């Protein structure tokens, strides 16, 4: 009879506190995605549109994280790898949106950007504080923490963009913020991908030899 044992660590027992934190973060991100999607369209803001896309991506990531909480480290790392790639792709999408906004040349509405940016900051700081305790976990937990941390930093930049647009009447502050958010996505995605690849390499499932 073929061996069915595995050299990989046993699947981690789902962490109830982490699960609860993920559900809270998931709900926050879904709500803010809708708020920024509508607000970004109204204000003609590429920064808000980019942040709305980020909220949507995070909501998907949190949902995936909830689905694999009881899986082995190898499969949690595999999901984290996908999320890392998604974070990096988000960076390129934001850059493309910023270029599109530059071509259109329509100045955004500063007051709407500032109000929604402040609301988004409160939401993301709340999620980041809730997830802070899990920042040093495996790549899956780390990716969740990085998403919330990057979002909070991005929201501060959105608020600064609103101030800049209000003071200058120019679209450039809005575009600069979009580029900053893209950079955060690229850096965060790279960090998650590196750790996920290492965990996958160190925890490959055992495949029994054919008889």
From TrEMBL:
TM regions (residue ranges): 21-43, 55-75, 87-104, 110-132, 152-169, 175-193
Q: Which UniProt keywords apply?
A: Membrane, Transmembrane, Transmembrane helix
Q: What is its main location?
A: membrane
Q: Which GO terms describe its biological process?
A: zinc ion transport
Recorded GO CC terms:
membrane
One GO molecular function term of this record is: monoatomic cation transmembrane transporter activity
Query: What is the name of this protein?
Result: Co/Zn/Cd efflux system component
In the UniProt record, does the keyword Transmembrane occur?
yes
Q: Which residues form a coiled coil?
A: none
Q: What species is given as this protein's source?
A: Acinetobacter kookii
Q: Does the keyword Metal-binding apply?
A: no
The residue ranges of the Cation efflux protein transmembrane domain are 22-71, 79-198
What InterPro entries does the database record attribute to this sequence? Cation_efflux_TM, Cation_efflux_TMD_sf
Q: How is it placed in the membrane, per its record?
A: Multi-pass membrane protein
Pfam families xrefs: Cation_efflux (PF01545)
Q: What subcellular locations does the record give?
A: Membrane
